[in-house]
Amino acid sequence: MSNKFYTPDGFNDTLPSVCAFKKDAESKLRRLFSLHGYEEIETPGYEYCDIYTKPDFVKEEDLYKLTDSKGRLLCARYDGTIPAARYAATLAKDRLPLRLSYIENMYRFNQTGGGKQSEFTQAGAELMGITGSDSDAEIIAMAIRSALEVGVEDLQVSIGQVGLFEGAVKQMGLDEETALSVRNAIIAKDSVTIDRTAKEKGLSDSDRNILLMFAESSGDTNILASIKDSFTEKMALDAIKNLEEILEALEDYGYTKYVSVDLGLLGSEGYYTGVIFKGYTYEVGFPIIGGGRYDRTVGVFGRDMECVGFSLGLSLAITALMRQGLELENPAAEAIVGYEKGNKDARSSAISLADQMRLGSTSVILDTSGMSEEDLNAFADENDIQTVFWINGGKD
Amino acid sequence: MLTIALSKGRLAEQAIELLERAGYDCNAAKEKSRKLILEDEKTGLRFIMAKPADVPTYVEYGAADLGVVGKDTLLEEGRQLYEVIDLGFGKCRMCVAGPKELKDGKLDSIPNKRVGTKYPNITRAYFEGVKKESVEIIKLNGSVELAPLIGLSEVIVDIVESGRTLYENGLDVIETVADISARVVVNRVSMKMKADEIRPMIDKLKVQVDLMNQEKEG
What we know:
Chain A is an alpha/beta fold. Chain A folds into 3 domains: 1-152 and 281-331, BirA Bifunctional Protein, domain 2; 156-255, no CATH class; 335-391, no CATH class. Chain A is 40% helix and 18% strand. Chain A is built from 13 helices and 14 strands. In chain A, β12 (335-339), α12 and β13 (364-366) form a beta-alpha-beta unit. The radius of gyration of chain A is 27 Å and the shape is elongated. Chain A starts with 15 loop residues before the first helix and ends in a 5-residue tail after the last strand. By secondary structure, chain B is α/β, with parallel strands linked by helices. Helices cover 36% and strands 29% of the residues of chain B. Chain B has 9 helices and 11 strands. The longest helix of chain B has 23 residues, at 195-217. Classes of the chains: A alpha/beta, B alpha/beta. The A-B interface holds A 113-114, 154, 156, 158, 188-192, 218-219, 260, 262, 280-287 and B 59-63, 81-86, 186-193, 195, 199.
């Protein structure tokens, strides 16, 4: 069977009305990033697989792979963060902190369906070379601003801190295997397994309640004050302080209404090192924003650098907006100019008229198919073109 | 409006019974008809009747906010979901089963075994992940017990409730892979965006599950 009529699974054409909205959103985001001093970079469409798989950031089977002329394994760009980290460690010589942004297509296996596709556009920003709650809050504020800029108004951002769980593990002296099973259960909000594991391992009631709290913390920002007394481990107390300071700073941005706390956000093991957050909206089953602090990642490429960043799934956000009732406008031209077929004077006048209007930022089609005046009017009607000019050469 | 995906059959009936005990009007879902979507605007609940294996998919993509489904299906599908309540019914075990002679460790003496199953992902995870061995998995769609009887495979991995089908065919449970029961799963976005409706529902269901467990013990 011939595949020439189809696009591959997970890949789609973007039709004019969606494309116009998307490109407009990209320009708004580009301007937003630039207004905040985030310099845009483009990284290669293909990287060596090793940058993703050797540090175990991404599973090999999730990458689109091909080989270069020497038989080395390459992969299509999977995300914006890892290439930015490689860039920051190897090429960027600027004084820190470094503010980078990107708007690029990403390629991932195992993501087909729903609003998620194998190819999708992400916009993101990375703040590199500094740490502290204020920089964490800056990135979360950037994430919220990005979503608002694109038009997502029903937005909820959940914020967690991986240090709190790591501190709890240390405080309770959990072995590696138990910690991992509790961790997976927390991510799935599976209190049954947490409860069972706690009983099997003979944990005290208070320890069990702390672990259950991770799975059941319900978004209320007041939870931080109430759990403080449960922790003695410095790592956990620092994490709570970090979260409190971030929430306080986000109040200054006026974003309190968008944020809540979710202590069950832990991300993939060993990647995030501090704050972690996800952003949600109605009508798509997946988070549209993801981000956090990843202080160990750039170090993998040979230069230690603290980092915090986020990415916005632009394709997913647009899917959500469309399902929420966004009416897309057809990007029709505003005017059309036609001329009498075969009349050179008319053609010359038509070309100058069209160009003159374009100088005034009006979009103009020059009809070169030789339509009659009647056909031209019918064509304009069908295609929502507002103004029609007909030039019949010197006679008018 | 909350959309709830139910696994067609016995599990759906039990789930509806539990929801009613928790104070939710489920008359819409009990309507005897061939409709696939059963909606009641008054109660703000919409039920979809799906094939069990599809319930995790509906919930992961957010087409349903929550669902009731067996742990076997969750393990096999491996979706990203919140798994919030063990309902305690629909209990059974996922087992490696085969001829009685393979009990007491003899299973391990067969190299490169062939395993017949409806659950290829669970089977792979168990043999490769837990037992650290490679096996040939033969995907079947029903009457899995046939496979070892006529020499298609040495053993099978399947759900065992009473074990009667196994015993009547001269087979037995050799190893237990996992304990199974019905679970409530929730979409990750719905949990945040519809917390006002979902949280109270989870809390009320948990109370009822505890009561039912106490009744059973008492």
